[in-house]
Predict the 3D structure of the following.
Amino acid sequence: MVVAGHDHPKNAAAFIADKEKAKWHDGALWFVRAKRDRMANSLPEWETLREKASGIKQHTVARLPDYLEQFAAQAEKRGIRVHFANDAAEHNAIVLGILQNRGVKRVVKSKSMLTEECHLNPFLERHGMEVVDTDLGEWIVQLRHEGPSHIVLPAIHIRKEEVGELFHEKIGTEKGATDPTYLAGAARQRLRDEFLQADAGITGVNFAIAETGGIVVCTNEGNADLGTALPPLHIACMGVEKLIPRVADLSVFIRLLGRSATGQPITTYTSHFHGPLPGGEMHIVVVDNGRSKILASDDFRRSLNCIRCGACMNTCPVYRRSGGHSYATTVPGPIGSILNPAQDAKKHATLPYACSLCGSCTDVCPVKIDLHHQLLTWRREIRVQGHLSWKKRLPMAVAAWLFASPARFSAIGRIGKFFLRNLPRPMLYNPLNDWGKQRELPPAPKKSFRDLYRERQKQTSGGREPSFLSESKNGPDREGLHPPLAGKGSGSHSRDASRSESSVDA
Amino acid sequence: MLSRLREVLPQALPLPSLDEQWIRFEDPAAQFAETLAFVGGKCETAPTLAAALDLVAQTAPAVEAKRTYSWFDGFPGANVAMEAIEDPHSLADVDMAVLPGRMAVAENAAVWATEQGLRHRVILFLTQHLALIVPRARLVDNLHEAYGRLSFETSDFGVWISGPSKTADIEQSLVIGAHGARSLTVVLTDEDFLGQ
């Protein structure tokens, strides 16, 4: 799928046009979510771990400069060179500089969302480097000239038939072959050659330990290890939020990461780098790229807790049904819909609305990011900053005007029922009615709730109309339903009074 | 960059203590074996190191291997002299490698391997098949306990290995043998051959 713009609903419409594939995508991610549940439920201390993880991250970001200094000092002691980059451009320039200094031509990369965020691959390629992504999923999307659609499962949007065709064309596997074992085996052969010919390895970082100056990288395939143990040069790229204070903290995060990401008790390889290969070089590039802006915000700071497990994507009903590419970002899904507007609210204005506010992401998040609350807050921000489309603004303004007056509300109910019954379909289902694209409007009921209630009250109370429904009357009755926030006398007193009044009616 | 960060810092919160009742198992060795099977590996037990090496030598990958590296002396069929090899790339055709595990964790079947006494650490990932031998005395219940015992004073590379390499990147179908080892055998020995 080629994504042209940043309009999530438009991109999602393209994704769900292939109904069968969209259904498969939904199911495949739900399967990963179910595996995650089994793992989380197998540990009695799951909630304790989440509490600790969130606490450690909140503590760390509040002292981030101190920990970064400690980390850099410790790493340098071990012969690792640490570089700081303010933004993507600086990051790319630093990496290119290191590679050019060593006359590097061929680079193997293991998965790094940060380098995706900085668009490092095309930058290095423009400068004549050959860059190979070695995570199988990343390699597949690289061969297709796409970005990943998921941060843990980069090729989850691609069917095995498509992989078979791609491999047949690019590496000469048998035509029509779709067996994942055969295809992965062919990729293994091909990528082994790439590892053996590489001049340098670039990896991401899962955790950076301030106490020791070391970094930890987690993979299932072993590609980060092959890519850093053969060539003499290792460059690791990390966002500032990857820092943790102590070695002991690793236990908390590693126990949470694999279980949350893919339902594994731990990733196959959890590699601890504390120095270069004998005779080699190791560099760590620490990148801000907008993270300090998020750190400054009380509303969004906790999104820096993120350990990129992808659990919020696997559980998200919108992500599962719209596909990662519909977000048109490096990090998609619920967490992406928070992080990307922080970079550019106008460009990513539709993302906070790619959410039903069901809260499932918040429930599964291993580091307790209040995702759905932040998404709601982003909607307000988008409106305040003036990036909300008139299609959303206008109905809201009309609704606010209607709901402000019970009389208007009651009147529109009657008019609405009339329209629902009598308007021709094209008047109801047209480009103005986004909601009705895949849904039928409800049938108009014969009587409104008010009508029914009034009738029922007449029957049971011998004709006496319940006082609080007579909206044309004034004061105390309505107060019974909506007690004023600050009344003349005691608010609770008037509420009690009206309650006893209506209980007389019953 | 650091000064910009200092300008926006929120109020500091205390660093949580990790002193908790973390999970323990009645039979950690059984838990380890079960979890290792779940992640695609195979667990064996042996009384001594010598018995463990014999056991590994009889596994199919070792029998079929043409090029075999053993960290231990006396492994039948070992024919790769690591110390004499300058360039790690020439280990590309190793079929079987036998190495010590420094620690094992029951909850997630992870084995700690390091480059201590190992000229080229790439062997851990480049070999087609891998066997790790760990003294049972170095089996702990959970990861917290494990990190409590590990030291990072030297700059040695260290890795938790849990099962053979794997990928599910094609349609979520599990394929064993991604880039690293295609199979993993772990032997727990009664003999504490690594000492304290």
